[in-house]
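#lab-general

N.A. 3:47 PM
ok so I finally got the sequence cleaned up, no stray characters, all 293 residues accounted for. can someone with queue access submit it? mine expired

B.Y. 3:52 PM
send it over

N.A. 3:53 PM
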Amino acid sequence: MPIHRRTCRFPGELRQITEPAILIFDLKKNVLIHRYVIDDEVLRDSTVLTSIVVDIAGKNCEDSFAYIPDMGSNALLVYSLRMKDVWRIENHFFHFDPHEGVYRVGGVDFYWSDGISSAVLIPSKKGSGHSYLYFHPTSSRKLFRMSTKLLRDRNVPRENIFSGVEVVGDRGEKSQATAIDYDHSNNVLFYTQLSKNGVSCWSVDQPLTPENVPLIISDCTILEFPNDIKVDHDSNLWILSNRQSRFLYESMDFDQINFRVLTAPTTTILQGTACEKVSSLDRVLSFIKKKDK
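B.Y. 4:20 PM
back already:
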């Protein structure tokens, strides 16, 4: 059975409509207030910019940064609003794991060498004023993190960048994910799970091990190729599934429903799972019950 690699051919010549740029809107006034064109010096021929994470470093919005994963060339772009400048960070942890590049989704076999694709900010418990940027390559089962103290400093020594990445843990077999997002109210990370047509979770208070990353939603039809995931300010989980493997490598039946946007409250989804938020009293009662047995 052939395994498709991420190579797409289109008839004719490809034409770039516009250069990649960061756009900032005032949502109250519905006005574009800033546009920054990303410099070619930080881009590569293989560049694929997949997401953006906004980091407001102080009370003044000018002290804001944006972190942009470059999945295609294994890098992270950092933009400073105050400096009106962007720089490129490279690290071997941004690369894919060759052992995790094989996929089978919707009956389609393919091989992806995708690097860092998704990231999310989680505040530091130490109250240092810095957060941690948690990130992962798509074709990987591991999660990593870096302090934003390093990322915000354009002049930080290269060796500090290499030593500043921490391995948080391992999600387990066939846990490749295109996207993650963080639910502040439950202190939980949500992952898309391509090879399992579903979504998993991880309570940040627990060690990142396979048993602490349960598959909480799965459906081979509704969630075939869960490609993106978001948690809104009201702690609702949003999931996009789009059967991308069929679209890229085989054919898509447009008489069927191929694109779905699903949503549910995170508290409802987490009930009865290893990620559910449990009070101190409940933990004590659970411990007593186990002792009684």
